[in-house]
Amino acid sequence: MLSRLTIRTRITAGSVFVAAVIFVIALVAVRGQVAAILSNADSTLAKGDLTTFINELVTKPSSTLDDPGTGVMLYVRSPSGTVQVDTMPHAIHEQLDHRGGADEQFTGRVDNGGFVVVGRVVKTAEGEWSLWAARSEASSDLVLSVLDTTLMVGAVVLLAAFGLASWLLASAALRPVEQMRRRAEALGDDPHEGGLPVGPARDEIAQLATTLNALLDRIRRSADREKQMVSDAAHELRTPLSVLRTQLELAHDNFGDAEALGAQIVAAEVSVDRLSSLATNLLELSRLESKDARPKPSSFEQLVTELMASVDRARMLGLAREIEVGFTVESRDDLARFAIGTDGFSRLVDNLLTNSMSAVDEGGTVFVTLTQDGTNLSLTVRDDGPGMPESFIPHAFDRFSRPDDSRTSSTGGSGLGLALVAAIANDAGGVVDLANGKPGLVATVTLPQM
């Protein structure tokens, strides 16, 4: 039920409930204290009524006691059992007739209210006198009745004022939230227009607004990256698709020439391979960024096996251009494990080797070093190509990025290789670094040990 109410209503209701409990406890305590004070006052007055007669009995034990006067309720019994003074109400009189003398205090009830009765015993030469005096509690009851009414009215007024104050304070406290909500609705029309308002106070709402603005920025950047990726992918796919279409049209024209037809088919296969590689890299990047599944960790021995397989593939591809591909493994610990799957590591090495081989000239050299030093795994791929412009290195891991010179797309690269390498390394908790080796480019991947 409460969950259907607004936060303002819940805060107000909760505050009023807590205040009501506190008020009830305070009112009960105040009433009890006042009642005790009035009871003590009645008892003191009754004791005062007895004082005169006690003094007279002490000084003149054989004298006859005077009439206490109107309004004074007194009951005096002599040592012989004779009641010398009795102005008590009938109901209290009946209680005292059969009651032994004692220093005591008790309350009695009659039809028109209650009484406080105080008893005393006075010892004289003639024996023990028993005296009782009473005071009506009617005035005290009247005072308590008026007090109850005053306290109840006051409590209701205070609760109403407290509830109104709680409502106003809750409204003031939640006003920034309402402003944030309205601004969020406006952001639906233009998601790039500003952010949520952050109030001047450094409170929890301001911190929430700051956190949500940071989330908005991340979502916007992610959306911009996705839009850019789609745009870049469409641009990258357009060229090989156009080329493939042209090659197929030429193949149709060369049905009568087997040699020309074969050449066009081979060229079309190259275009298909490029399209397949581009689609595979895009899917792999999407999988890594979505983190749908964590790869199984691999041992150092497994990674060495994958490295050797990648080097063998690179050597086969480099035979036509007489590119030499070498490798070395240093400081190995076959039992060490790393948070990267064998498929991911193989793809990482393949992309780095392909990138280096596409940059070197015929007869060039590419060398791979795999080192385990302490708790890190270091993979270094070095080539003797022309290197990379220093201004481009910070952007080398962006999707579809290519330098303007030295390492261009003339070899068919899509600009996704290094982006995929960085994504695989980051997914394993590692980092990738590029630097010009003069000559060539040095790519270093560092992965932490599990």
- The tally of structural domains comes to 3
Structural class: alpha+beta
Percent helix range: 40-55%
The proportion of residues in beta strands is 15-25%
Task: Tag the structure with descriptive keywords.
450 residues; alpha+beta; Beta-Lactamase; Heat Shock Protein 90; 3 domains; 5-stranded antiparallel beta sheet; 18% strand
Report on the architecture of this protein:
α1 runs antiparallel to α3, α4 runs antiparallel to α5 and α5 runs parallel beside α8. This protein is rod-shaped. The protein has three domains: 140 residues, Beta-Lactamase (2-Layer Sandwich); 58 residues; 151 residues, Heat Shock Protein 90 (2-Layer Sandwich). Helices cover 54% and strands 18% of the residues. The protein has 450 residues and is α+β, with helices and mostly antiparallel strands.
Topology record:
Elements: H1 7-59, E1 73-77, E2 83-86, H2 90-97, E3 104-110, E4 113-124, E5 127-136, H3 138-187, H4 204-253, H5 258-290, E6 298-299, H6 300-318, E7 324-330, E8 337-338, H7 342-359, E9 365-373, E10 376-383, H8 417-427, E11 431-436, E12 441-448
Parallel strand pairs: 7-9
Antiparallel strand pairs: 1-2, 1-5, 3-4, 4-5, 6-8, 9-10, 10-12, 11-12
Helix pairs in contact: 1-3, 4-5, 5-8, 6-7, 7-8
Brief summary:
With 450 residues, this protein is an alpha+beta fold. It is built from 8 helices and 12 strands. The chain has 3 domains: 6-145, Beta-Lactamase; 233-290; 298-448, Heat Shock Protein 90 (2-Layer Sandwich), CATH 3.30.565.
